[in-house]
Amino acid sequence: MPEEELSKTIELNEDLIENNEKLAAQNKETLTKYNIRSFDVVGAIGAGKTALLEAISKRISKNKRVLVINGDVTTRIDADRIERHGVKTIQVNTGRECALNSYHVSQVIKNLDLSEYDVIFIENVGNLICPSDFILGTDKRIVVVSITEGPWVIRKHPMLFKFSDLAIINKIDLIDVIDVNIEDMINDAKQINPDLKIFTTSAITEENLPELIKEIFSD
Ligand code: MG
Predict the structure, then answer these.
(1) Which end of the chain is more exposed for a tag (fewer CB within 10 A), N or C?
(2) CB within 5 A of ion ligand 1: which residues?
(3) Taking a C-beta distance cutoff of 8 angstroms, is the pair 124, 71 a contact?
(4) How far is the CA of 102 from the centre of ligand 1 (A)?
(5) What's this model's pTM, rounded to 2 decimal places?
């Protein structure tokens, strides 16, 4: 690519990111005005984002009104899984885009009666790279990886860990059959972001879920 074209592309991307940040700030203001706690859940396909949201929603929906916004390229499989637990979901199909952006979220919340919700989880499109550039305006970002993604998954994706508040290392119920050292994974995450709160979980056995939920809703 000629140098001039390349610099134009970079400028364009910077505009995109700047506009995204402005809209994210508006989203945050709107959600805060309605006293809604909001969370952006990112991670690869198959890390267990939906399974964790099912398990978390099931526990908290007894005393909190929960909405889950599901980003997906084409399907509503995840939204249907979560709705089985009586939690309201909204599906956002992103088409060719590999992450949700703050415009998607603004369009969803614009058309909602926000007084009907206490908590909004946004399950981002399954991807460990794209979402790092696009904040959505939530209170916290939660990154989910699983031990089945191999021992280097955290070290290979530093950006998402750098800009998340909470990291979940999921599928610890499989530790006997997967050759990874969870302590090493935790140390990788801490090295990238010393402020990161890190939890090891299993959405199946629900190990450490109460502690995780407590941390998610802490200020
Ligand atoms: Mg999912």
Answers:
(1) C
(2) 49-50, 78
(3) yes
(4) 19
(5) 0.92
